[in-house]
Amino acid sequence: MPLPVVVAEVVRSGFVEGRHHGSVVALDAGGGVDWAVGDVTSPVLPRSCNKPLQAVAMVRVGLDLPPQLLALGCASHSGEDIHVEGVRRILAGAGLDASALRNPADLPLDPVERDRVLRAGGSADPVHMNCSGKHAAMLATCVANGWDTDTYLDPAHPLQVAIRATFEELTGEEARVAVDGCGAPLLSTSLTGLARAFARLATATDGPEHRVAEAIRRHPAYVSGTRRDERLLLGALPGAIAKFGAEACEVVALADGRAFALKIEDGGDRARPVLMAAALVRSGVDTEPGVDGAALRATGEAPLRGGGAVVGEVRAVL
């Protein structure tokens, strides 16, 4: 795999004290590469960026959820009440409870929610884990098809076979299978393939792709959380869809089919929103009609502090 390039610098008091390497690709509305930095054709593990594509596969084989719960099926959620209650609703609709979940126990992803749970005497559990919406949707899909619910994470399970087939169709690439942090099969693709797949969802006018894209557009807080940079970015980009993944991956697709995908090589998540905002600005998205340019650019601000004052920033290098 070719080495990634410097895409962000950590600047303190005018001194560059560190750098993040990575790659980013921008596709035009026709699906061609408009511009790229670094390696955008080798396979990567997009982690939770894959969730909307997994959701399309589930809808194709019979998952039927209202939009807000379908959005939760695409989520790396914050563990807020709307997420926890939503996961329980998905499970209850399938005649199941939290004991059916095969994802690990965890505290909420959002630090405010994590502290609230701990202050109330709570502890880690599977429902609060950020992938529980996806797992609940997987279980509901199994019930809808009469498939075994105990082995739904096995790559040979009919659910996972269907997900892989859809994923490879949407990305246009053959996937390798790894294991994600939540225990589910994790499929590889290039950044170009990931962007291509999201563009297909964003431009769909009917069918499962359209249902998933509309769920994300209508309920962005269910896909992430009320305080997350993803939700703020989608609020600035009418008609767009987006998803972040662990190890600093992110993908955004605009309503016209333009799409952007990135990965920070060292997994440094602080550089992820900085680079995505810079990529959108490089393509002029922040100045387009209907876009809240100031809000878009604000998602890419990462100030550094010293002695209580701002003394630097993480800045993109594109």
Number of strands: 10
Shape estimate: globular
Spans of at least 5 consecutive residues with low confidence? none
Q: Secondary-structure element order, as H and E? A: EEEHHHHHHEEHHHHEEEHHEE
Strand residue percentage? 15-25%
Radius of gyration: 19 Å
Largest sheet: 8 strands, antiparallel
Briefly note the structural class of the backbone. Answer: alpha+beta
Account of the protein in words:
- With 318 residues, the protein is an alpha+beta fold.
- It contains twelve helices and ten strands.
- It has helices at residues 51-60, 67-73, 81-93, 111-119, 132-145, 158-171, 191-203, 207-218, 220-223, 229-236, 271-282, 293-298, and strands at 5-12, 15-27, 33-37, 177-179, 185-187, 241-245, 249-253, 259-264, 303-306, 309-316.
- The strands form two sheets. Strands 1, 2, 3, 6, 7, 8, 9 and 10 form an eight-stranded antiparallel β-sheet that branches. Strands 4-5 form a two-stranded antiparallel sheet.
- The two termini are 21 Å apart.
Short synopsis of the structure:
This protein has helices spanning 51-60, 67-73, 81-93, 111-119, 132-145, 158-171, 191-203, 207-218, 220-223, 229-236, 271-282, 293-298; strands at 5-12, 15-27, 33-37, 177-179, 185-187, 241-245, 249-253, 259-264, 303-306, 309-316. The chain is an alpha+beta fold.
Summary tags:
single chain; 318 residues; alpha+beta; eight-stranded antiparallel sheet; 12 helices; 10 strands
Topology:
Layout (H helix, E strand, L loop, with lengths): L4 E8 L2 E13 L5 E5 L13 H10 L6 H7 L7 H13 L17 H9 L12 H14 L12 H14 L5 E3 L5 E3 L3 H13 L3 H12 L1 H4 L5 H8 L4 E5 L3 E5 L5 E6 L6 H12 L10 H6 L4 E4 L2 E8 L2
Antiparallel strand pairs: 1-2, 1-10, 2-3, 2-8, 4-5, 6-7, 7-8, 9-10
